[in-house]
Amino acid sequence: MIQSSRDQSFDYDELDRLTDALGAYGDLDYSYDAIGNRLSLTEDGVSESYSYAPDSHRLEEILGTTTDARQYDAAGNTISSLLGSYTYDDQNRMVGFSNTGTTASYGYNGKGERVRKTVNGTITRFRFGPSGALLGEYDQSGQAIREYLYMEGQPVVQLQGPVPAQVSYLHTDHLGAVLKATDGAGSVVWDSDRRPFGERVETVAQVEMLLGFPGQYYDQESNNYYNYFRDYDPTTGRYLQSDPIGLNGGNNLYVYVMSSPINNFDPLGLKCCTIRVVTDMECVIRANDKFRKCLHNMFMECNSLTGEGGFIPFGASVIMCSSPPAHDRWRINCNEQLQRDLLKCKIEVCYFR
């Protein structure tokens, strides 16, 4: 059902950064400096300003109705903010958070997936699928808290509680982020007027929904999102850690998806993907060994793959590390799942047209 009250409109600057958003959450205006740091946010006429270290991208202070001063360690990890204090391991993964009344710790497996969270003594364990998708959350005894089902990479069902679980059907947007959830009768059991950078404004909460933008999981204790290799602060549109892949992830080490969260997403917390539409994809292949290695032996299971070099057969086409392609642009017409698989490379951007 179309609801005009849920309409939103957006404006952008010449660098495709979001400058204005109008929706049920109000009227939001953003400004940026030359390298993408947010300088101001004005919400319904009330402004806050952002200041940065002169020799880095590190956010030092937010000045508005309150003052949020931030501190960092030598590796560029945020160690304190208005919300609390953070600690990290030697891989710059967040392993602790604390504020008045809350103490949390986090544990990771060898792949970098966060598999354990303890908040004030309560342990939650997480299970991930082969592709890195979150499959479920479990208590210390192994009982399911929530489990998730996916179709072509998109979350479509949430099962809450042990058997018989409460079943919720998930409705996602063009990015794959959950907009609302319904029960078997079609009644809305969870809904949110999500702000552009992911801040939660729940309007219906009969079930708990902790999935955020693709690859993100909401941590209620800190009001941040776990985003696989980093942690994301939706109030600032920035990560709490510097980008692990450095400038390969863009010219700003902290900003989320080039400040264009309506069009872009970052499932791993490394580098953004850009979605235009969902049928045609043009991959720009540059002379980049990391990119070729990422695509090495990945079968392009399309009905056809054509470009300046002509037709390439179904099912057995690879880009070899030792043999760069003769042409730098190929148009791929294939299913959405393959498009998402290709985007997992995160080394070069594949633009949907």
Characterization of this structure:
InterPro entries: Rhs_assc_core, T6SS_VgrG/RHS, TEN-like_YD-shell, YD. Keywords: Repeat. It comes from Candidatus Thiodiazotropha lotti. Residues 5-243 form the Teneurin-like YD-shell domain. This protein has helices at 289-295, 336-343; strands at 9-12, 18-23, 26-32, 38-43, 46-52, 59-63, 67-69, 71-72, 78-81, 84-88, 94-99, 102-108, 114-119, 122-128, 134-138, 144-151, 154-160, 166-172, 178-182, 188-192, 202-205, 217-219, 224-227, 230-233, 238-239, 264-265, 273-274, 280-284, 304-307, 329-333, 350-352. The longest helix has 8 residues, at 336-343. It has 353 residues and is mainly beta. The chain folds into 2 domains: 4-265, no CATH class; 276-352, no CATH class.
How many individual β-strands? 31
Structural class: mainly beta
Sheet having the most strands: 14 strands, antiparallel
Which ranges are low-confidence, i.e. pLDDT below 50, for 5 or more consecutive residues? 276-339, 343-353
Query: How large a portion of the residues is in β-strands, by DSSP E?
Result: 35-45%
What average pLDDT do the residues reach?
83
Gyration radius over CA: 21 Å
How much helix, percentage-wise, in residues? under 10%
Number of domains: 2
Number of helices: 2
Strand order of the largest sheet: 8-9-10-11-12-13-14-15-16-17-18-19-20-21
* Shape by Cα distribution: globular
Spatial separation of the terminal alpha carbons: 27 Å
